[in-house]
């Protein structure tokens, strides 16, 4: 049986990523698109020959509530501005729809915790997944498998991202861009998810963080750079450095080092080094194709609906932990580098 699905939100990401991912999934059939404004919803809907719903102008039988009342729509993908996302998640779940909502899970940890508690306490049968595509990146999946194969105790790690995002571009990649640290939250959770996935594969979790930020020269000034030192539960440490204000350098890498080898994820490859019991070293590198993980996360969501078993990579608690990590780092900076414990 095909799963009827609707897209709530008609922005660039919904059109360029969610729509192709739904079309590529044989388990899903797109039924409708919703946006606050008729023109935005109509644009995608007419191209795909599906129904459209909107709030403005207000017309009978065209509202979000009308869409959620449809029995042939079993699930929704929510890709709306962050300040209205929590409300739509609640409405859709309360209407009996399975939900795939975009990251971050909410605008702050307190809001996210309240939302997750509401969802779990109600013991809802509807599936709620958070669309964190970094957990579905081929490089993260391969590196996680390699870390499990290498084994050993994590002794060190580092995550580095350097790039440049202009003030205008920040408004496209972050719907919280008006906040001074908006891009660090909205985009930083991606890298929190990537690092946490790899550390989990190596049987480690983060215990505490300390961090500092720096401000760009834009007007108004935006906090675009975050430097953090992280301690793991086993006592080892590492670093987490991301910057969206680096004009002349573009770098992305996550390296996890254990006492039996190391794994390094870059944008286009995964490199592994393994030491066996005899001290022999083997090294290999696997090239990666272009795949941002969105199609895989949508496929996993559909399979979860079909099976009734949640994909652990998409459960809201994972997205909450990603957001909590970034928020604790920013809180540390606000308090002059105070060590913040991860609960």
TrEMBL record:
GO terms for biological process: NADPH regeneration. InterPro entries: Gfo/Idh/MocA-like_OxRdtase_C, Gfo/Idh/MocA-like_OxRdtase_N, NAD(P)-bd_dom_sf. Pfam families: GFO_IDH_MocA (PF01408), GFO_IDH_MocA_C (PF02894). Coiled coil: none annotated. Residues 176-341 form the Gfo/Idh/MocA-like oxidoreductase C-terminal domain. Residues 4-120 form the Gfo/Idh/MocA-like oxidoreductase N-terminal domain. One of its GO terms (molecular function) is nucleotide binding. GO terms for cellular component: cytoplasm. This is Gfo/Idh/MocA-like oxidoreductase N-terminal domain-containing protein.
């Amino acid at each position: 049986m095909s799963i009827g699905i609707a897209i709530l939100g008609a922005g660039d990401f919904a059109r360029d990523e969610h729509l192709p991912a739904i079309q590529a999934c044989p388990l899903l059939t797109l039924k409708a698109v919703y946006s606050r404004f008729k023109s935005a919803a109509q644009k995608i809907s007419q191209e795909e020959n599906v129904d459209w719903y909107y709030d403005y102008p207000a017309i009978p039988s065209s509202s979000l509530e009308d869409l959620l009342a449809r029995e042939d729509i079993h699930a929704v993908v929510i890709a709306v501005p962050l300040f209205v996302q929590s409300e739509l998640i609640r409405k859709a779940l309360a209407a009996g729809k399975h939900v795939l909502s975009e990251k971050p899970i909410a605008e702050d940890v307190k809001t996210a915790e309240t939302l997750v508690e509401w969802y779990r306490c109600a013991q809802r049968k509807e599936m709620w997944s958070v669309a964190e595509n970094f957990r579905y990146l081929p490089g993260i999946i391969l590196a996680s498998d390699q870390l499990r194969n290498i084994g050993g105790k994590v002794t060190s790690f580092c995550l580095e991202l350097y790039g440049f995002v202009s003030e205008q571009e920040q408004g496209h990649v972050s719907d919280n861009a008006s906040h001074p640290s908006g891009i660090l939250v909205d985009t930083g959770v991606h890298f929190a998810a990537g690092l946490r996935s790899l550390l989990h594969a190596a049987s480690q979790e983060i215990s505490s963080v300390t961090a500092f930020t720096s401000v760009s020269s834009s007007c108004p000034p935006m906090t675009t750079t975050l430097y953090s030192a992280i301690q793991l539960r086993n006592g080892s440490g590492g670093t987490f450095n991301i910057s969206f204000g680096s004009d002349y350098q573009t770098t992305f890498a996550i390296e996890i080092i254990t006492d039996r080898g190391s794994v390094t994820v870059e944008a286009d490859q995964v490199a592994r080094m393994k030491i066996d019991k005899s001290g022999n070293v083997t090294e290999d590198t696997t090239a990666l194709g272009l795949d941002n993980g969105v199609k895989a996360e949508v496929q996993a969501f559909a399979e979860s609906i079909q099976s009734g078993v949640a994909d652990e990579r998409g459960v809201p608690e994972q997205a909450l932990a990603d957001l909590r990590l970034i928020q604790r780092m920013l809180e540390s900076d606000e308090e002059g580098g105070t060590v913040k414990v991860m609960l």
